[in-house]
Amino acid sequence: IAQTTFTSTFTTDLSAYGELTSYPGEGEYQIFLSADNILDKPIFLIDGFDPGDSRNITSIYNLLNFTGTSGSQNLADLLRAEGFDVVVLNFPTYIRMADGATIDGGADFMERNAMVLVELINIINTDKAANSPEQNVIIGPSMGGIIARYALNYMENQSLDADTRLYISFDSPHYGANVPIGLQH
C-alpha cells in the first residue's frame, strides 16, 4: 500500500510550552501487508526522535535489518511471512497550513506526535478487516516508545478503543533524558 500523509483530528494543549494555539500534527505512514493482502494483524512501528527528519518510511523499515544464522534478514519481512501486517509511522517535516510555519515533526512535541498516533490507530482500526479477531501490537523504539505510551494513555482516558493487546518500548527514556543544554538549543 502506498505511503499516505495525514493530519490528526486530535489536538493537545501545549500552552505550558508557550504554544497558545493547539495545532494538529501531521504524519506519514505506510502499510506493508502480509501475503494474504488483507489488513487484519497490524503491528505498528513508531519512529522516535529524528531532528531534521533524516529517516523516512523506507529507512525506518530497513532499521529492522539484521544478520543471523540464516544470513541477512529483515524482522518486518519475517513478521509479514508469519501473516502480520507492518504499519510504519514517520513524523515528517511539513509546512503547517494554519500559519505557514515549518514543523520538524521528528523533533516536535511528543504530545502532538502522540495525537498523530491516536489518529493513525483509529484509521487502521477502521480499515482493519471486519472479521479480524486480532488486536494491534504497538512498538516504539526510543522516543517512539514515549509517544506510543502517551497515545495509548490518552485513548484509555478518553474511552477511545485502541484495540491493542501489546505495547512494547525499548531504549525509551521513561524517566526522562539528560540532554546537554547546547544540544537542546
Which keywords apply here?
185 residues; alpha/beta; two-stranded antiparallel ribbon; globular
Order of helices and strands: EEEHEEHEEEHEHEH
According to DSSP, the number of beta strands is: 10
- Classify the beta-strand content into a percent band: 25-35%
Termini Cα gap: 38 Å
Give me the secondary-structure category.
alpha/beta
User: What's the pLDDT, averaged over the residues?
Assistant: 93
Q: Kindly state the percentage of residues in helix.
A: 25-40%
The general outline is globular
User: What radius of gyration results from the CA coordinates?
Assistant: 17 Å
Strand order of the largest sheet: 1-2-6-3-9-10
Task: Give me the number of helical elements.
Answer: 5
| Uncertain residue ranges | none
* Main sheet characteristics: 6 strands, mixed
Task: Give a verbal description of the structure.
- The protein is an alpha/beta fold and 185 residues long.
- The chain has 5 helices and 10 strands, in the order E-E-E-H-E-E-H-E-E-E-H-E-H-E-H.
- The chain has helices at residues 57-62, 75-81, 110-127, 143-157, 181-184, and strands at residues 4-7, 26-32, 42-46, 65-68, 71-74, 85-90, 93-95, 102-104, 136-141, 164-170.
- The strands form 3 sheets. The chain has a 6-stranded mixed β-sheet with strand order 1-2-6-3-9-10.
- Strand 9, helix 4 and strand 10 (164-170) form a beta-alpha-beta unit.
- Helix 3 crosses helix 4.
- The N and C termini lie far apart (38 Å).
- The model has no long low-confidence stretch (mean pLDDT 93).
